[in-house]
Structure formats: structure tokens, C-alpha cells
Amino acid sequence: MQMPDLAAHGVPTPPMLRHAPEGVEIAIRNLGRSFGGQRVLVNLDLDVAPGEFLSIVGKSGCGKSTLLRLVAGLDRPTSGSVTVGGLPAHEAGDHLRIMFQEPRLLPWASVAENVAIGLPRGPDPRAVAEALEQVQLADKAGFWPAQLSGGQRQRAALARALVSHPGLLLLDEPLGALDALTRLTMQNLIRDMHDRAGFTAILVTHDVAEAVALSDRVIVLGQGGILTETRILRAGPTTRGSAELAAIETGILDAIFAR
Ligand SMILES: Nc1ncnc2c1ncn2[C@@H]1O[C@H](COP(=O)(O)OP(=O)(O)O)[C@@H](O)[C@H]1O
Ligand SMILES: [Mg+2]
């Protein structure tokens, strides 16, 4: 397909990435982040493969959100580096999206207008309609956020995050405020979207079962670095609740509470 020359029309084009628009690779080298005298991350090395779904678990305050903010380019390392698709994280912002526990929708804009905010080059009604369709909110396009349930608001936030087809989706406890059944529905939706779109995903969660259900790999963060990492080979989507996954969960919980 012939791409329009956006630069010729004064539209800034983002720096080129390796593997765009599918999953981008992440390389974290010798990463350190301190706040005053407190060393939160120390000499951390981590590679995430294009299209991988990685989860980060660990005790509260161990630095999970700090690490995610560094990958998002919302914060700068004290030492070391983070590259996203070969670019320094703070230059890769157009290619990644982040979701938090609160959906952070604009209350005075419709659901469709909120989703359109995810498009850096302005509104594209077809793309917005497609994103809303994928999160099963097509019939709520004209609603206000206040007219949605908590789960529907988080689905709108997911549509806003994915409407631009980012190479990387970062999730910081995105389902933490939802009830248990809505959580399961959202987990399945995130997994489906990942399978379909092929972006790289990093999920921070305090829910080890959620991490195991969604991820290809789970790392336990603690004492400034990675304590353990566990690869999860899944036979199919029906394995949730199986004895194998339960044993993996127990191993991860032991690693979190070992020290
Ligand atoms: N901007 C900041 N200024 C000072 N301290 C911070 C800042 N951000 C995080 N911290 C500290 O870094 C540690 C890790 O925080 P955080 O990454 O939010 O933990 P987690 O997400 O694992 O619960 C905490 O002790 C927190 O107080
Ligand atoms: Mg956190």
C-alpha cells in the first residue's frame, strides 16, 4: 500500500521503530532509579520480546509502577537505559499506551470522543467504531462516561489505548477496582486483543492468578531487581484453574514472600 507523505503536509511523523506496528521489543540495561537516598531499582536487566505478554508481580512498594513508568518514558532512569523498539523510552511515546486502575475518561466527552483521544493524528470515526466494536461497546458510543458501569469504563479506556494500534501496551493494575466477575471478563478481553493485535504487553498486578492466566512470563520484582522469572507455556485458553497453573501460582507466591 502506498503511504501518504505526512511530513510533506506538515504532519510530524514518529521516529521509525523496529517491528512496528506489531509488538515492539524492549531492552532494559543496568537500570537504576533512586528517589533521594532510596534505591528502588538497582542494576536491573530485562528483555521483552516483540509480542510477548509479560507480567510483573511483587510486594507493594517494590518498584513495579516505577519500572512501568520508566518503560513508558514518563520518568527517567538514575542510571542505565530503557529502549522501546530501539528508541530511548522517552522518544517512543507515540508507539505505546498505558492503562491505569482508574479509566481516566473525560467526563464531558462521549465514549466515542474519549476513544478518539487515543489517535495522535486526530479523529478517525472508522477506527473509533472498530475499537468500540472490539470491546463490545459499539452501542454505547454516544453515552457519557457517567452512564457506564465500572467495567464498561475500563473497556472504553482499553479501546482508547488500542485505537492507534500501539506496539506496546502497559497496564498498571488496570483491573484492581473491578469486581471479580468483571475482572475475569476483562482478562479474557485483554488476552483476546493481545492474541489478535500482537502488541507487546507488560502487566503490573498484585493478583498472581491474573498474571499466570494472561502471561507468557511472570517476573517477581523485589530488592531492586528480578527475584525469579517463570515461563508459562499454555496449551489453550481452557487451562485456567488447572493443577499445573495452581502449582505455578504457588511457586510465584512463595518467591514473593520468601524474604
Ligand atoms: N516520585 C517519587 N518520589 C519519591 N519516591 C517515590 C516516587 N515514586 C515512587 N517512589 C517510591 O519508590 C518505591 C516504589 O514505588 P512504586 O514503584 O510505586 O511501588 P509498587 O508499584 O511496586 O507498589 C516506594 O517506596 C515509593 O514510595
Ligand atoms: Mg504500583
The top level CATH class name of the domain at 22-101 and 167-257 = Alpha Beta
Identify low-pLDDT runs.
1-14
Oligomer: single chain
CATH-defined topology of the domain at 22-101 and 167-257: Rossmann fold
Counting H and I runs of at least 4 residues, what is the number of helices?
Answer: 7
User: Can you say what the CATH homologous superfamily of the domain at 22-101 and 167-257 is?
Assistant: P-loop containing nucleotide triphosphate hydrolases
Strand order of the largest sheet: 6-7-8-3-9-10
Short recap of the structure:
With 259 residues, this protein is of the alpha/beta class. The protein has a domain at 22-101 and 167-257: Rossmann fold (3-Layer(aba) Sandwich). Helix 4 (150-162) runs parallel beside helix 5 (180-197) and helix 6 (208-214) crosses helix 7 (243-257).
Element layout with pairings:
Elements: E1 26-35, E2 38-48, E3 53-57, H1 64-72, E4 79-84, E5 87-88, E6 96-99, H2 111-116, H3 125-134, H4 150-162, E7 168-172, H5 180-197, E8 200-204, H6 208-214, E9 217-222, E10 225-231, H7 243-257
Parallel strand pairs: 3-8, 3-9, 6-7, 7-8
Antiparallel strand pairs: 1-2, 1-4, 4-5, 9-10
Bound molecules: adenosine-5'-diphosphate (ADP) and magnesium ion (MG).
Provide an overview of this structure.
With 259 residues, the protein is of the alpha/beta class. The chain has a domain at 22-101 and 167-257: P-loop containing nucleotide triphosphate hydrolases (Rossmann fold). It has 7 helices and 10 strands. It has helices at residues 64-72, 111-116, 125-134, 150-162, 180-197, 208-214, 243-257, and strands at residues 26-35, 38-48, 53-57, 79-84, 87-88, 96-99, 168-172, 200-204, 217-222, 225-231. The strands form 2 sheets. A 6-stranded mixed beta sheet has the order 6-7-8-3-9-10, with helices on both faces. The protein has a 4-stranded antiparallel beta sheet with strand order 2-1-4-5, with helices on one face. Helix 3 packs across helix 4. The radius of gyration is 19 Å and the shape is globular. The model is unreliable at 1-14 (pLDDT under 50). It binds adenosine-5'-diphosphate and magnesium ion (MG). The site of magnesium ion has 2 residues, from helix 1.
